[in-house]
Specification:
The complex is a heterotrimer of chains A (about 290), B (about 525) and C (about 180). Chain A has about 290 residues and is an alpha+beta fold. Chain A has 6 helices and 10 strands, in the order H-H-H-E-E-E-H-E-E-E-E-E-E-E-H-H. Chains in contact: A-B, A-C, B-C. The complex binds copper (II) ion.
Chain lengths: ~290, ~525, ~180
């Protein structure tokens, strides 16, 4: 019934997609958490369902365009006006497909919502235009702003080629450090306007809203640097408040925490705070000190 | 696009119309007002398009080339407001003005004086909006969604933007009331509701959506205004308000608004495909019911625009499922259009070409919409270029192509001349290829992690941005062909017959002469 | 406008409809709070305020829930604002007290106000406050510091799978009231 040549041509065209679809400059990253992998597979499942429907629907359209053209002598069948059976069929099939998609999506949603049994809590506050990270109960608090090199290069008419800057716009002065294989709970809020904290490799995107706290969590299974950006328009420098999460081994994390606490103690004891050390005074005081 | 002097040549004895500028300032004739709306929309399309090209120029490569980030934010905010409220909506109202009386056999719109007001509000509204660029602090820069607290940080542009939105809202509400009254009260004898052409049907439903949600937008922006100037705390957390509540109210307007921008396009495509497939629309009743269910569902899906604000799980589930439901009536429409072409006898004149492009490319926008409905995946898509690609597919090769299809379909009826088919074909092919070069790579950008509304980006996004910008410039400049074509067609050309198209002529508009007489139906036609 | 008589009734109804929609936009504000209450959820995750007298203590000694306190200074200039203790282990059904420390470092007298927020939001209504400094404008003299008290009880009906509740206060200044107090 369907024109085989058209179908196979279409197949080749669409078949070309997966070859590139897994390249990270074309597609969603698989990510480094269980949730991110689930989200990625949901994305791919829905994508392929769409491709399958597209093959059928576009196939029928293309076939009609080729086969039923007046120039080829096609005569219109003007008696074909409606068909209840057909309408019922093409309403029911999509319903079934949608149910099939909704079930796994709902399951993942439930898992994403479960913030219990977190081993580490980090409070994240969005500012115009930087992030503040406070490790709850650990006395560690610091701001994270766009790295200096990117910041020079991104100025209007800076004359610096962004291609010469490593990780242009995705580098910060203070990275968030978290241990691997640890459930990290994020408490998000904002100081001024709404921001949104997004790290694609964790499949975490949550708004930071002034006056309110939102929860999110991730458990990275792989050591490494993961980057993200603010994703809610928050004013002039919205494009320039990146996120860098450095996932380290549990031992390295313990060492990092000890270093930070020691540095904080030194700073609190009246030593001139060094620019490179994150300050770890009481959260509110540090918020004030930064102004 | 009727023009006073060209019209004179075709004057019929009963066509006594006013002349000079007064004809347009005090226009009460539905055709004159339709023309004004369409020309205004075309102008706005070019202004909004110029902003889009400025944006694409800045994004051509990483680094800031031309604009301060604050000005960039003003550009993207105004681009959206101008395109939505200045180009697409007025174009549909213009088409409604021209075609609804012709299609239902009425002499004019029901409320000609109000029709005049509703048009002439628009130039003032947009002058206000665009003049805000010259105020301290520049134009509105908080995004067209106007989310507080950010939108409240604006300078003097803030009240101008709010009042402009109020005026646009008032204009659309008047237009909508006019459409409803005309369709409900002025149909020719024998034209029952289920004999109404689909363009009228979709517009009737759109008009009800307009009067249901434009006032809600007006309310939301009024609350922003009082929060800013009168110390209320609707959305101010310091005073116990909730900024997220604005998003709920805004999207309660915003989602039906999305359908306001696409339902008339469905109507247009449902008119054009049967003509050139030479076969009546398949499943007319199903089409009407599908349109009505889409309109109904549009009221219960709004929070899918805000999955990341931190809703309770039950809320996320509800909005995910209700959103997925919309795929069903939308699918029914696409299937019915396909079935209309099936066993037809097709020819491919410019209106049909645009309608077919709509069919394919709108469906692609529908697919990405379905993907966006899946809440867990939406956490990855939300506020990235994937969303930008999605709604531009729906709005440009969707709504805008449908408007162009309509112009190509009815232009000979309006002017009495056939247009340059060769030029129209060029316009079609260049637009269709470039619109895909422009928007398709944006899916990749979003999936790879590029957030929307940023003036500069990390270097890994360079290649697709360059491709997209090239497509944008080709698409933008190819629209000049459209203007040339319309200009030529207004000036002259081969005489159009009453029937215009060698296709299945359906609808009363093809029973009147071309150009359509100044007063449409003095004696109502009988419809059987 | 002189609309033909046969249109008037319909126009009247449509205008009424439009006015109704406009009113509905504003009605969404209270409706939003009502719905949040009905569904015992929603975006206003403030917790509930209860009268002290109505509290009957029936502690569930077998169960321990961690309460986590967070203070945020939002847009309020120079302030110290932090919980006195970061966490507190509580038995559901028992009344507890906690304090936040606030100090005005702005260099002038200020009126400020704290806004509460509870996570996870779905259980916010199990967190009952009998006394709270939230939503009350607080006058602070220059350099004044104060301990702000909260009394609360966690409902015994708290779902069994909840092990931790976070209570956050954001501290905002109220410029209009500050000006009025000068
Ligand atoms: Cu931000």
């Amino acid at each position: 019934m369907l024109n085989r040549k058209v179908l196979s041509a279409l197949g080749v065209l669409l078949g070309a997609a997966p070859a590139v679809a897994y390249d990270s400059s074309y597609n969603m990253p698989v990510g480094v958490t269980q949730i991110a992998r689930e989200v990625h597979s949901l994305h791919m499942i829905v994508f392929w369902i769409c491709v399958a429907i597209a093959v059928a629907v576009f196939g029928a359209m293309i076939y009609s365009i080729i086969a039923f053209r007046k120039s080829k002598g096609a005569v219109a069948d003007t008696t074909m006006l409606h068909s209840t059976i057909v309408e019922v069929i093409w309403t029911t099939i999509p319903v079934l497909i949608l149910v099939g998609m909704a079930v796994p999506a709902a399951k993942t949603l439930v898992r994403m919502d479960d913030t219990r049994n977190a081993e580490l809590s980090i409070k994240i506050t969005g500012y115009q235009w930087k992030w503040q990270y406070e490790y709850l109960g650990k006395g560690i608090s610091f701001y994270s702003t766009l790295g200096a090199e990117s910041n020079y290069a991104r100025q209007l008419h800076s004359g610096i080629d962004p291609n010469t800057v490593k990780d242009y716009l995705l580098e910060v002065d203070h990275e968030v450090v978290v241990p691997v294989d640890t459930k990290v709970r994020l408490l998000l809020t904002a100081n001024d306007v709404i921001h949104s904290w997004w790290v694609p490799d964790f499949a975490v995107k949550k708004d930071a809203i002034p006056g309110f706290i939102n929860e999110a969590w991730f458990k990275s299974e792989k050591i490494g640097h993961y980057t993200g950006q603010c994703t809610e328009l928050c004013g002039r420098d919205h494009g320039f408040m990146p996120i860098v999460v450095n996932v380290v081994s549990k031992e390295d994390f313990a060492r990092w925490v000890a270093d930070q606490q020691a540095a904080a103690k030194a700073a609190a004891e009246g030593a001139a705070p060094t620019a490179t050390t994150a300050t770890t005074i009481a959260p509110a005081a540090s918020a004030a000190a930064a102004r | 696009m009727a023009h006073a002097d060209t019209h004179a040549a075709h004057d019929h004895d009963h066509d006594h119309k006013p002349s000079g500028i007064g004809r347009w300032l005090f226009a009460t004739n539905h055709k004159d007002i339709g023309t004004l709306y369409l020309l205004f929309a075309l102008l706005m399309f070019f202004i909004g398009g110029a902003m889009a090209l400025a944006i694409r120029a800045e994004l051509y490569k990483p680094g800031l080339q031309f604009f301060d980030p604050g000005f960039y934010n003003s550009l993207l905010t105004s681009h959206a407001l101008v395109m939505i409220f200045g180009a697409v909506m007025p174009a549909f109202v213009g088409l409604a003005n021209w075609m609804i009386p012709l299609q239902i056999g009425a002499p004019d719109m029901a409320l000609p004086r109000m029709n005049n007001y509703s048009f002439w509000i628009l130039p003032f509204a947009f002058t206000l909006l665009l003049s805000s660029f010259f105020t301290a602090g520049g134009g509105p820069a908080g995004g067209w969604t106007l989310y507080p607290p950010l939108s409240l940080q604006a300078g003097d542009s803030f009240p101008l933007t709010i009042f402009a939105i109020h005026m646009m809202g008032a204009s659309s509400i008047m237009g909508a009331i006019n459409v409803i009254v005309t369709i409900m009260n002025m149909r020719a004898p024998g034209m029952t509701l289920l004999k109404l052409p689909l363009f009228c049907w979709t517009w009737l439903i759109t008009a009800y959506l307009l009067i249901a949600v434009m006032p809600v937008l007006a309310g939301a922006v009024t609350m922003l205004l009082t929060d800013h100037y009168f110390g209320t705390s609707f959305f101010n957390p310091a005073g116990g308000g909730d900024p997220v509540m604005f998003q709920h109210i805004f999207w309660f307007f915003g989602h039906p608004e999305v359908y306001i921008l696409i339902l008339p396009a469905f109507g247009i495509v449902s008119e054009i495909i049967p003509t050139f497939a030479r076969k009546p629309l398949f499943g007319y009743d199903a089409m009407v019911y599908a349109t009505a269910s889409i309109a109904f569902l549009s009221f219960i899906v709004w929070a899918h625009h805000m999955f990341t604000v931190g809703m309770p799980l039950a809320g996320e589930m509800f909005f995910m499922l209700s959103t997925m439901l919309i795929a069903i009536p939308t699918g029914v429409k696409v299937f019915n259009w396909t079935a209309t072409m099936w066993k037809g006898s097709m020819t491919f004149e410019p209106p049909m070409l645009f309608a077919l492009a709509f069919l394919f490319l709108f469906t692609i926008g529908g697919f990405s919409g379905l993907m966006l409905a899946i809440a867990p995946a939406d956490f990855q898509y939300q506020d990235t270029y994937f969303v930008v690609a999605h709604f531009h597919y729906v709005l440009v090769p969707g709504a805008v192509f449908a408007i162009m299809a309509a112009v190509y379909y009815w232009l000979p009826k309006w002017t009495g001349h056939m247009y340059n088919m060769r030029l129209a074909n060029w316009h079609f092919w260049v637009s269709t290829v470039s619109v895909n070069v422009l928007f398709f790579p944006q899916h990749f950008l979003g999936l790879a992690g590029m957030p929307r509304r940023i003036p500069d980006y990390s270097t890994q996004f360079t290649d697709w941005n360059m491709v997209s910008s090239v497509g944008g410039f080709v698409f933008g400049f190819s629209q000049i062909l459209f203007v040339i074509l319309i200009w030529q067609c207004v000036r002259g050309g081969a005489k159009a017959t009453d029937k215009v198209w060698d296709g299945l002529s359906h609808g009363l508009e093809w029973t009147v002469p071309s150009p359509a007489p100044y007063h449409s139906f003095d004696t109502p036609p009988e419809v059987h | 406008m002189a609309a033909p008589r046969r249109h008037r009734a319909l126009i009247g109804r449509l205008l009424l409809f439009t006015a109704g929609s406009f009113a509905f936009g504003f009605a969404l504000v209270p409706l939003y709070s009502v719905l949040c209450k009905v569904w015992e959820t929603g975006n206003r995750w403030y917790g509930t305020q209860t009268a002290q007298a109505s509290v009957i203590e029936q502690p569930d000694a077998a169960r321990v829930v961690t309460i986590e306190f967070i203070g945020t200074v939002a847009h309020a200039g120079e302030w110290e604002f932090a919980p006195t203790a970061n966490t507190l282990k509580v038995h559901p059904g028992k009344l507890y007290e906690a304090t936040f420390h606030a100090k005005n470092l702005t260099g002038h007298a200020v009126v400020a106000q704290a806004v509460p927020s509870i996570a996870p939001q779905s259980i916010a209504h199990y967190f009952k406050k009998t006394q709270c400094f939230c939503f009350e404008p607080q006058k602070f003299a220059t350099d004044e510091s104060r301990e702000l008290l909260i009394r609360f009880i966690v409902d015994r009906e708290l779902p069994a799978d909840v092990d931790r509740i976070t209570l956050s206060y954001s501290f905002f200044d109220l410029p209009s009231q500050t000006a009025a107090n000068r």
